[in-house]
């Protein structure tokens, strides 16, 4: 019961650690490491290596499209999620008096680029969460005819709450308001529907099990036609055209957002890891982390802890957050036991992925109990 969906020996370092840190970083799969080495060998093949790079890149887009029920031509590779969000913010045709909607469960990369728009007279509307959740109605209540965009994560980095973005998008499609969905904390562990938003963005190095260096950017061309605020040789149809010193024509598909070469080591890795996740099945991974998460939540509550993440399985994914003023101290204490979690900002977060099992949770709870007692003995408070 609640066994891992993949053997821990397939990852580097899991034989010595309890890895509950996937919301921040995931361990290196040996196949991912081999894929990066394959890229390095390809570099020694000259033009043949470049052809291999193109093949891997195209295949990786096809796999991601399969994972999100989309089309490869609607996916671009950029360097990181912050770049994608900043690009959208700078490329939209904003008018003074327009507004956009954020909420208090959003990661800083989904907040900071929009704050710059205040200089242009754009109103930023902030929806306050209620007990760690933001609902569809909460967002719709502050949406009006001047709302140009809603920015939200599918799963909150802060509380682990999952937003019903599909219900939100059904309502927004009746208006001119666009939806930008950050799936960094969900893609690879729960299902994502690419065309149930206007923009989708995801980092490569978390639940997708790959490395740093890329962001997945999906666009819904049936509803938008965004012209990027910058251009590079990969974003145009003919970089060596006869009029290249006078004019250019952007690519018709998502490639218009790609300036130059992507991080090919990352794409080689992601090409492997996305195929691995698809082979295991996103529905199977979701079922596993939700079952394991329910078991973990019960154990945390038995320790008297305040769990921020919703108990209902359909309202969460792999992240389980606990409110505690000593969150950073707890994470540091568990690190001494080779247990990796994230702590800080008045909480600690435990992340469950396909390689975790019941033994991982039991070991965490076993080590957490005396650690909490020690902190309380030092005068710490459960925030």
The CATH class name of the largest domain reads Alpha Beta
**Helical residue percent band:** 25-40%
Main sheet, how many strands, which sense, barrel? 7 strands, mixed
Please indicate the percent range of residues in DSSP E strands (runs of 2 or more): 5-15%
Oligomer: single chain
Strands of the largest sheet, in order across it?
Answer: 2-8-7-6-5-3-4
Structural class: alpha/beta
Number of strands: 13
Provide the domain count.
2
Give the full name of the CATH homologous superfamily of the largest domain. Answer: Type I PLP-dependent aspartate aminotransferase-like (Major domain)
CATH architecture title of the largest domain:
3-Layer(aba) Sandwich
Give the H and E element order: EHHEHEHEHEHEEEHHEEHEEEH
Describe the fold and architecture.
- This protein folds into two domains: 8-20 and 282-377, Aspartate Aminotransferase, domain 1 (Alpha-Beta Complex), CATH 3.90.1150; 31-278, 3-Layer(aba) Sandwich (Aspartate Aminotransferase, domain 2), CATH 3.40.640.
- Helix content is 34%, strand content 14%.
- The protein has helices at 30-42, 47-68, 81-91, 112-115, 136-140, 165-172, 264-280, 282-302, 327-335, 358-377; strands spanning 18-19, 75-78, 99-103, 123-127, 147-153, 178-182, 199-203, 215-219, 306-307, 319-323, 339-340, 342-344, 347-351.
- The strands form three sheets. The chain has a seven-stranded mixed beta sheet with strand order 2-8-7-6-5-3-4, sandwiched between helices. A four-stranded antiparallel beta sheet has the order 9-10-13-12.
- Helix 9 (327-335) packs across helix 10.
- The radius of gyration is 22 Å and the shape is globular.
- The two termini are 33 Å apart.
């Amino acid at each position: 019961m609640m066994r891992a969906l993949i053997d821990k020996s397939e990852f580097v370092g899991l034989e010595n650690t309890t890895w509950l840190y996937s919301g921040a970083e995931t361990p290196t799969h040996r196949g991912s490491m081999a894929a990066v080495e394959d890229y390095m060998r390809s570099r020694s093949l000259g033009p043949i290596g470049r052809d291999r790079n193109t093949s891997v890149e195209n295949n990786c887009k096809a796999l991601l499209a399969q994972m999100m029920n989309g089309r490869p031509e609607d996916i671009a590779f950029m360097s990181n999620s912050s770049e994608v969000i900043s690009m959208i913010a700078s490329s939209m045709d904003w008018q003074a008096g327009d507004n956009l909607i954020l909420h208090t469960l959003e990661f800083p990369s989904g907040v900071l680029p929009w704050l710059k728009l205040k200089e242009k007279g754009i109103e930023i509307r902030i929806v306050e969460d209620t007990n760690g959740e933001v609902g569809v109605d909460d967002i719709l209540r502050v949406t009006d005819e001047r709302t140009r965009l809603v920015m939200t994560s599918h799963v909150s980095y802060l509380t682990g709450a999952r937003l019903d973005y599909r219900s939100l998008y059904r309502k927004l499609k009746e208006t001119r308001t666009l939806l930008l969905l950050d799936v960094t904390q969900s893609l690879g562990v729960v299902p994502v529907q690419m065309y149930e938003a206007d923009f989708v963005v995801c980092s490569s190095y978390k639940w997708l099990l790959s490395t740093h260096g890329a962001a997945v950017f999906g666009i819904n061309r049936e509803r938008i036609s965004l012209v990027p605020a910058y251009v590079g040789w990969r974003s145009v149809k003919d970089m060596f055209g006869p009029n290249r010193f006078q004019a250019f024509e952007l690519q018709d598909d998502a490639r218009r957002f790609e300036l130059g070469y992507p991080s090919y080591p990352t794409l080689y890795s992601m090409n492997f890891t996305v195929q691995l996740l698809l082979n295991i099945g996103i529905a199977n991974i979701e079922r596993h982390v939700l079952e394991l998460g329910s078991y973990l939540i019960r154990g945390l509550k038995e320790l008297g802890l305040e769990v921020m993440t919703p108990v209902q399985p359909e309202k969460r994914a792999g992240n389980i957050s606990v409110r505690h003023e000593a969150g950073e101290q707890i994470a540091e204490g568990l690190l001494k036991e080779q247990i990796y979690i994230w702590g800080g900002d008045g909480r600690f977060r435990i992340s469950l992925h396909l390689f975790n099992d019941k033994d991982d949770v039991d070991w965490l709870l076993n080590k957490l109990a005396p650690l909490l007692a020690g902190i309380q003995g030092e005068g710490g408070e459960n925030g």
